[in-house]
Amino acid sequence: MNTLSLNNFSPLDPQSFLEESKLIVDFIADYYRNVEKYPVQSQVSSGYLVHHCPDSAPYSPEPLESILKEVSDSIIPGLTHLQSPNFFGYFQANASTTGFLGEMLCTGLNAIGFNWIASPAATELESIVMDWVGKCSCFHLHFFSQEVVAVSCMEVRVRPYFIV
């Protein structure tokens, strides 16, 4: 039985991560630079992708350059390009450099914020940012995660935390 050599496989090698992430960022930047050249709605037929994929999963890792070429040749034609300036349908363009970099940072830190105990910083930051949105939208104080108590000219914030 063939086995994958551990000498060839390193799931998170910092140097290859640095080199390969540059390739990914360049790939995505090129995609956004050219997104308006793609038809907004995919022009492929149902089942098209099976003809572009091997019959079984690869036995060993493939070079990232090969994977990105396959994505460009086979995956991108099968996408609806919601970020295209030619798309006026269901969603407005929602990508920004700030949002994209924030997603990269969140993914890189593997911050899972589904409850406070899993990631206190992520959960609390989400509450704080949602309070900012509430203030910008003039929401009633009942919608805020923090109780706001006015004391003369300043606000004192009290946040009850309950861990059940």
From TrEMBL:
InterPro entries noted in UniProt: Aromatic_deC (IPR010977), PyrdxlP-dep_de-COase (IPR002129), PyrdxlP-dep_Trfase (IPR015424), PyrdxlP-dep_Trfase_major (IPR015421)
Protein name as catalogued: Tyrosine decarboxylase 1
Superkingdom assignment: Eukaryota
Cofactors: pyridoxal 5'-phosphate
Transmembrane segments: none
Keyword Lyase: yes
Keywords: Decarboxylase, Lyase, Pyridoxal phosphate
Xref: Pfam families: Pyridoxal_deC (PF00282)
Alphabetized PANTHER family for the sequence: GROUP II PYRIDOXAL-5-PHOSPHATE DECARBOXYLASE, TYROSINE DECARBOXYLASE 1-LIKE
Signal peptide: none
Any one biological process term the GO annotation gives: carboxylic acid metabolic process
GO-annotated molecular function: carboxy-lyase activity; pyridoxal phosphate binding
Family the entry assigns: Belongs to the group II decarboxylase family.
